[in-house]
Amino acid sequence: MKIEIPDGVERIIQKLNHQGYEAFAVGGCIRDTLLGREPKDWDITTSASPWQVKELFGRTIDTGIQHGTVTVMDGRTGYEVTTYRVDGEYEDGRHPKSVKFTSSLKEDLKRRDFTVNAMAYSHKRGLVDEFGGLKDLKSQVIRCVGKPEERFGEDALRMLRAIRFSAQLDFSIDPGTWAAVKAVAPNLKKVSKERIQAELTSLLLSPHPERIELVYQAGLSPYVALSFHQVIRSQLCIDPGLPAKKHIRWAVFLKDTEEEEAVEVLRELKLDNDTISRVRTLNRWICRQIPAGKVQIRWAMSQMEPSLFDDLLLLKKSLGQPWATEMKWLTEEIRKAGDCTSLKELAISGKDLLAAGMKPGKHVGEELNRLLGLVLERPELNQKEILLHLAVLR
Ligand code: ATP
Ligand code: MG
Fold first, then answer.
1. Beta strand pairing status for 43-46 and 77-83?
2. 126 CB contacts (<8 Å, ≥6 apart)?
3. Residue 311 and residue 324 in contact, taking contact as beta carbons nearer than 8 Å
4. Do residues 350 and 391 lie in contact, with contact meaning Cβ atoms separated by under 8 Å?
């Protein structure tokens, strides 16, 4: 079987081979290529030690040298080259206590999570598939390498990874693997919130975001976070046609949850502040009816960034809310007309008010907001002279 691999990867493999080391493309890139999908990145596994890799290549970065990973730069592209390793015993289900390097590719493949992620390839040796990955790829199954309970005991995050890959690839989870997830679900409490969040976010961004339901079915949800466990999912149906943006997907997932509780979920899972603030705004406005009138729409537009308002319209449409299509038209008309919908676009600034004799203080901002309110109702008022005339100078 011949697999296309990028020139850069081939150059690295050849150079390692020339020095007498084994080297293969491995993991997700082989899985994705066999599925006809574009791999996100290409990883290389080799019998050479990290120090030998560093010596051999001009430009390298110590990405995770304690775990045997060195990034080799080929032009502008970096490839992670990792030494064959056997993960030692896992401490607290989080990190391997020790990493042992090995000279055996099979050992390296054996430590990997799922059969479909445990294949390696080189032009010289062809596909190396020690654990039935190709068969599982064909029957579209996520199955642990080795005994599932043991593997989830070593690293509990793998349970969420199983669900995440099933959602990304539209694969089922092998019954034995699934039974093990249910049996050892409480182990997830040992995993850091950041790692959990990264998997849940990938899951929500996938073509099957609704499979987040499996996290609940497996009994994993209480160990994700208490607030997450309590999310209301009565009519959970996430339109996979919605743009794969973090804040949009999290907002749909949390659409029936109260604003403060939704924010709590995201905080507990350590999402970034930017995403939290966008989800908060979307959450607040999803449940508000915006009447299909220009004044009300301009008012809503003034409450968020233009791109977030577009996202809100998409969400409302995908949720089948009334007037979503009409709102979109009216929004376009408002934008075409160049109506003011933010303080930035107001024809008058704080400076102008001060120059006109207003005393500094927080009432300057309040007055600007009041004027904005007038302009949202009557866009034709957005002219400096008119607004100066209307301003109450205190
Ligand atoms: P993606 O396309 O999402 O990057 P991937 O398969 O490349 O998928 P990574 O998380 O980038 O996933 O990991 C690369 C490879 O490392 C996996 O294919 C798998 O072989 C191995 N791996 C990653 N995380 C684990 C883990 N927690 N336990 C065991 N093996 C893992
Ligand atoms: Mg990857």
1. parallel
2. 1, 2
3. no
4. no
Whether the predicted pLDDT of 58 surpasses 90: no
Q: How far is the CA of 325 from the centre of ligand 2 (A)?
A: 39
E strand or H helix at 171: none
**What letter does residue 360 receive in the DSSP assignment?**
S
Is 87 a pocket residue for ligand 1 (Cβ < 6 Å)?
no
- Residue to mutate, 117, 136, 195, 201, ligand 1, most ligand atoms under 8 Å from C-beta: 117
Whether the pLDDT of residue 83 is over 90: the answer is yes
Q: Which ligand is nearest to the CA of 93?
A: 1
- Round to whole Å and give the CA distance between 119 and 183: 27
Residue pLDDT, tens place only, 227-243 = 999 998 876 778 878 89
Could you tell me if 159 and 186 are in contact, meaning their C-beta atoms sit under 8 angstroms apart? Answer: no
The percent of the chain in helix, strand and coil, each rounded to the nearest 5, is 55, 10, 35
CA distance linking residue 10 with residue 281, whole number of Å = 47
Rounded to the nearest integer, the mean pLDDT of the chain is: 94
Tell whether domain 1-132 is in CATH 3.40.640.10. no
**Does the structure show a pLDDT above 90 at 254?**
yes
pLDDT band of 95, cuts 50, 70, 90 = low
**Nearest residue (CA) to ligand 1, atom 28:** 113
Question: Which amino acid appears at position 198 of this protein?
Answer: A
**3-class SS string, 236-285:** CCCCCCCCCCHHHHHHHHCCCCCHHHHHHHHHHCCCCHHHHHHHHHHHHH
Cβ–ligand 1 distance for 33 under 6 Å, the answer no
For 134-147, write each residue's pLDDT tens digit. 999 999 999 999 99
Q: Tell me which of 94, 113, 154, 202 to substitute to probe ligand 1's pocket, judged by most ligand atoms within 8 Å of the beta carbon.
A: 113
d(CA 204, CA 387): 46
Sketch the domain layout of the chain as residue ranges: 1-132, 288-338, 340-394
Distance from C-alpha of 60 to C-alpha of 16, rounded to nearest angstrom: 14
**How many whole angstroms separate alpha carbon 94 and alpha carbon 84?**
20
